[in-house]
């Protein structure tokens, strides 16, 4: 008996072609181009593992570990040390310093960024300011501390000049340079250029047509910024302010070079725990302090990522 003919649909349906990267039996095979792309990510992945993941694991493990002098093992004594008065004062001082310098730097930096954004795109002002901000944002540590000490220190040029010519003593109420006001002033020096760098792209994303449309509808300048420009720039401004806070909170070298007595901020407390010759075996306490800083910075950067996600919706 002859075989029955196959259905018409079977004859009309072509056989599936093997896709790129698939071998016999539908098994996928590695694409050389994909391997090259993966190799390009290897240096960045190694950098993240060596300088971020491994140090974080060392801090977390050490924060919950006892020192060799105490027999090793797991302990919560290091975490309980975070509740001591001097540690809490250091966290309060660090947060206050970071918040004050971030707010001042954000406001002044935003005004400077607006002046740059409204200037000619290829003009001299934009090129000079952006180049200077790129350099001054990284100007810190011993160099910045010496610059302020030589300028407005106890024997600084401005201090001596005002005292000799105008009989003005800027330290009549105390040496504020090494306290919260002075450190805020020093930190603001590198916060303002950083704000210009991170906030300028948001200002460049504001289209002139939006203001023209508001003016054509009878809106004033105040109404435009209150109802259009302000709400659009608010997430970017708040996100930049949080970035400035994290930048100041983790700063160490400038305060270490400027403050010679005491440890008012958390990074200096960590230095004392690691290098003190009076209190030995405090290395893991320093790691617990570092863990506290990691948690604070992680929360701040999480909020920053949320705000950046909202900003990217209209910048794109």
TrEMBL record:
<dbReference type="InterPro" id="IPR000515">
    <property type="entry name" value="MetI-like"/>
</dbReference>
<keyword id="KW-0472">Membrane</keyword>
<feature type="transmembrane region" description="Helical">
    <location>
        <begin position="288"/>
        <end position="307"/>
    </location>
</feature>
<feature type="transmembrane region" description="Helical">
    <location>
        <begin position="224"/>
        <end position="246"/>
    </location>
</feature>
<comment type="similarity">
    <text>Belongs to the binding-protein-dependent transport system permease family.</text>
</comment>
<protein>
    <submittedName>
        <fullName>Putative spermidine/putrescine transport system permease protein</fullName>
    </submittedName>
</protein>
<dbReference type="GO" id="GO:0005886">
    <property type="term" value="C:plasma membrane"/>
</dbReference>
<dbReference type="Pfam" id="PF00528">
    <property type="entry name" value="BPD_transp_1"/>
</dbReference>
<feature type="transmembrane region" description="Helical">
    <location>
        <begin position="129"/>
        <end position="162"/>
    </location>
</feature>
<dbReference type="InterPro" id="IPR035906">
    <property type="entry name" value="MetI-like_sf"/>
</dbReference>
<keyword id="KW-0812">Transmembrane</keyword>
<dbReference type="GO" id="GO:0055085">
    <property type="term" value="P:transmembrane transport"/>
</dbReference>
<keyword id="KW-0813">Transport</keyword>
<keyword id="KW-1003">Cell membrane</keyword>
<keyword id="KW-0997">Cell inner membrane</keyword>
<keyword id="KW-1133">Transmembrane helix</keyword>
<feature type="region of interest" description="Disordered">
    <location>
        <begin position="1"/>
        <end position="26"/>
    </location>
</feature>
<feature type="transmembrane region" description="Helical">
    <location>
        <begin position="35"/>
        <end position="64"/>
    </location>
</feature>
<feature type="transmembrane region" description="Helical">
    <location>
        <begin position="90"/>
        <end position="117"/>
    </location>
</feature>
<feature type="domain" description="ABC transmembrane type-1">
    <location>
        <begin position="91"/>
        <end position="306"/>
    </location>
</feature>
<feature type="transmembrane region" description="Helical">
    <location>
        <begin position="182"/>
        <end position="203"/>
    </location>
</feature>
């Amino acid at each position: 008996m002859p075989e029955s003919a196959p259905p018409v649909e079977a004859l009309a349906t072509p056989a599936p072609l093997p896709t790129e990267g698939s071998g016999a039996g539908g098994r996928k095979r590695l694409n050389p181009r994909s391997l090259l792309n993966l190799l390009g990510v290897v240096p960045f992945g190694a950098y993240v593992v060596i300088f971020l993941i491994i140090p974080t694991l060392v801090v977390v493990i050490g924060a919950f570990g006892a020192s060799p002098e105490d027999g090793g093992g797991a302990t919560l004594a290091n975490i309980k040390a975070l509740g001591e008065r001097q540690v809490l004062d250091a966290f309060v001082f660090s947060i206050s310093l970071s918040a004050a310098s971030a707010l001042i730097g954000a406001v002044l930096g935003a005004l400077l960024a607006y002046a740059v954004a409204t200037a000619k795109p290829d003009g001299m002002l934009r090129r000079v300011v952006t180049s200077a901000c790129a350099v001054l944002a990284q100007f810190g540590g011993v160099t910045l501390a010496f610059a302020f000490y030589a300028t407005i220190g106890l024997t600084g040029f401005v201090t001596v000049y005002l005292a000799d010519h105008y009989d003005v003593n800027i330290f009549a109420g105390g040496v504020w340079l090494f306290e919260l006001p002075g450190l805020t002033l020093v930190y603001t020096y590198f916060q303002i250029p950083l704000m210009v760098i991170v906030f300028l792209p948001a200002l460049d994303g504001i289209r002139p047509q939006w203001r023209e449309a508001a003016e054509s509808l009878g809106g004033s300048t105040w109404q435009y910024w209150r109802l259009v420009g302000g709400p659009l720039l608010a997430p970017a401004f708040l996100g930049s302010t949080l970035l400035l806070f994290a930048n100041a909170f983790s700063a160490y070298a400038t305060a270490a070079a400027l403050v010679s007595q005491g440890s008012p901020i958390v990074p200096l407390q960590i230095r004392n725990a690691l290098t003190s010759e009076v209190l030995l075996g405090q290395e893991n306490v320093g790691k617990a302090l570092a863990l506290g800083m990691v948690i604070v910075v992680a929360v701040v950067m999480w909020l920053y990522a949320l705000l950046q996600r909202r900003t990217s919706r209209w910048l794109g």
